[in-house]
Structure formats: C-alpha cells, structure tokens
Amino acid sequence: MNHFHWINSFAKNLVHYMIKAVLLLTVGTIAGIVPYFGVYYLINHFISGKYVSITSVAVIAVCIAACLVLKTYTTSRGLASSHYLAYKTLANMSYRYLDL
C-alpha cells in the first residue's frame, strides 16, 4: 500500500474537502496571474507609444481589483478547507491508533 492510499484511508468521508481545496486554490492561482496580463497590455502600449484611453485603463484597473479580491477569497477558503481536512485526518489517525 502506498503512502497516499494509507493516509487517504483516514479521510474517506472527507474527499470533497480535498477536491474543494484543490479547485479553490487553482482558481486563486489563476486569479493571481491574470492581472499581469492587464499590466503587460498597459506597459506594452505605453512603451510602443500607442494610444491608451482612460476607459481601457479604468476597465483594466477594475479587472485587476476584481481578480485580487477573487484571489484572496478563493485562497483563504481553499486553505480553510485544506486545513480542516488535515485536522480531521490527523484526528482520525489518533482515534484509530490511540483508541480514543
């Protein structure tokens, strides 16, 4: 039996917390990367001397703010789910081996 299956045997009813954590942290990671594309767009247009309207700057700024809020929310919820899973897994291990 490999280590993953052995540890997973203590978290059989908690797999949905693992899936939730992975999905939320993936969304958080993507939301943390997306703002750099907006910044790249602005810097590229400024350096090349192209016209950048105030509307496009405002839209990019709002998108960056929304991505950062999404990143913060999804990362915190994903970490909460991950830590809950870890706590319950360790609790199940102690119940099995210490007969509590």
Provide a brief overview of the structure.
By secondary structure, this protein is mainly alpha-helical. Helices cover 85% and strands 0% of the residues. It is built from three helices and no strands.
What does this structure look like?
- With 100 residues, the chain is mostly helical.
- It is built from 3 helices and no strands.
- The radius of gyration is 21 Å and the shape is rod-shaped.
- The mean pLDDT is 90.
Helix percent reads over 70%
The low-confidence parts are none
Annotation, overall tally of beta strands: 0
Shape, please?
rod-shaped
Order of helices and strands: HHH
**What is the terminal separation in angstroms?**
25 Å
Average pLDDT confidence is 90
Supply Rg.
21 Å
Major beta sheet summary: none
Task: Briefly note the structural class of the backbone.
Answer: mainly alpha
Count up the helices: 3
Q: Assess the beta-strand content as a share of residues.
A: under 5%
Give the helices and strands, then pairings.
Layout: H1 3-8, H2 15-48, H3 54-98
Helix pairs in contact: 2-3
Name the features.
about 100 residues
